[in-house]
Design goal:
Belongs to the peptidase S14 family. The chain is built from 17 helices and ten strands. With 427 residues, it is an alpha/beta fold. The longest helix has 35 residues. The N and C termini lie far apart (70 Å).
């Protein structure tokens, strides 16, 4: 053990608990080596079916070497891990985040503890059928005096606070809310992980031909955890997530993943020209400077007032509440109403983009989560209040900038040391 920590005095040696060591040894016999392989010239798959870091797991440096050697456009990371070293997990997440390829993380069986940190570095997180995810406060054990233990506790608390901030960036909510979830050692099923915002979607692929996710997760020794399901494949009802509690309801899968869209791929909302807006306003009797809500309301009112009367009522029975219009006029009114609705939707979309872009520029959410938040606000505009409550996680403050060389300052300094006079004498 001592050769693993040659630079640390014994009083500052941080080691895992005896229970964790026993479980790690058992898991070491079950784990598979880190494996990376190309699925096509532009796609690669990386399999992390092992503990993370420590004495028995995959080290961050080995993970970085495998991933950085992949010159592809897309990486599929397959994870089945009970966790391990939090710092190794954070390092692996940053390796994924810094890679040029798009990274899609698949939780094939279990992503617990540090493994849940690794997948945060992916652009998209997919829960395979039967898989589970667990978050908790990090552990450590310290051999030393009271001061050493107090210092270790402080370091551990800061680490857990940082981890809570990362979960908040991915899923929404506040770091304080996620810290409370971590303290409870919360286990999520595949669907619950998506509802909580920790994953983007549950894979719709049929399980045939793949390793059974529940069986894969059950292969790990999870005795070191306080609330691990027994058996592990049993469903575990997770407490309400911060993302859900902030709005009083569980976010939909579409809102959490950001992967669904109400429009066909490649389509865009129609942009109205000024002349089209003017024509629409004239048709429904409102001013050209009216806002979209007024235009839409006027169109709807016009349709109600001018709708064609039912065929069973003879023309002789027309009254003050019924107005007949010909088919061409009716069709034109319907088309105008559709244009008004599209104009309104375009303005709402622009407002959502301004809100999310502001959150990105202020460091409250990561740029990679922009599309997910746009979809989330489209599904539930009330989530804008939750976005506004997020605290900045990324520092976007300017710390300095390049500029012209201060020649006047250099000349003054040269005069003080006598260089300027010597230069003149030499000339």
């Amino acid at each position: 053990m001592t050769d693993q920590f040659p630079a640390l005095p014994a009083a500052q040696l941080v080691v895992p608990s005896a229970k964790a060591v026993r479980a790690a040894r058992a898991n070491a016999k079950r784990m598979q080596p880190l494996r990376a392989e190309k699925a096509s010239p532009t796609t690669a798959r990386v399999y992390l079916y092992a503990e993370i870091g420590g004495w028995f797991g995959v080290l961050a440096e080995d993970f970085a070497a495998e991933v950085n050697a992949l010159e592809v456009d897309q990486i599929h990371l397959h994870v089945n891990s009970p966790g391990g070293s939090a710092f190794d997990g954070l390092a692996m997440a940053n390796v994924l985040r810094q890679h040029d390829a798009k990274v899609i993380a698949h939780v094939d069986g279990l992503a617990a503890s540090a493994a849940s940190l690794v997948i945060l570095g992916a652009d998209e997180i997919v829960m395979e059928p039967g898989s589970q995810l667990m978050v908790h406060d990090a552990w450590a054990a310290c051999i030393g005096n009271a001061a050493d233990m107090t210092k270790t506790a402080s370091i551990l608390d800061k680490l857990c606070t940082d981890m809570a901030g990362l979960y908040a960036v991915r899923a929404g909510g506040t770091p304080q809310e996620w810290r409370a979830v971590m303290l409870e050692e919360t286990w999520y099923t595949a669907t619950e992980a998506v509802d909580a915002g920790l994953a983007d979607r549950v894979s719709a692929d049929a399980p045939g031909g793949r390793q059974d996710a529940a069986a894969a997760a059950a292969a790990w020794d999870l005795s070191m955890f306080a609330h691990a399901p027994e058996p592990h494949t049993a469903a575990h009802s997770a407490p309400q997530s911060p993302a859900a509690s902030a709005t009083g309801s569980t976010p939909s899968a579409a809102a959490a993943s950001g992967s669904e869209d109400t429009h066909d791929e490649g389509s865009t909302l129609m942009d109205l020209t000024e002349s089209q807006v003017a024509a629409l306003c004239n048709a429904v009797g409102v001013g050209v400077d009216a806002d979209p809500d007024t235009i839409v309301a006027a169109v709807q009112e016009a349709l109600t007032e001018r709708a064609e009367q039912p065929e069973e009522r003879p023309a002789a029975q027309d009254d003050e509440t019924t107005v007949r219009v010909d088919r061409d006029m009716f069709d034109q009114l319907r088309a105008d109403a559709a244009l008004g609705r599209k104009a309104h939707e375009a303005q709402l979309r622009a407002a959502r983009e301004r809100t999310v872009d502001a959150a990105v520029s202020e460091g409250r959410i990561a740029p990679a989560r922009r599309d997910a938040w746009l979809a989330r606000l489209e599904a539930d505009p009330e989530d804008e209040q939750q976005l506004a409550r997020l605290e900045p996680v990324f520092n976007t403050t300017e710390h300095g900038h390049a500029g012209d060389i201060d020649l006047d300052g250099d000349t003054a300094l040269a005069k003080q040391v006598g260089w300027a006079d010597n230069e003149q004498e030499a000339s």
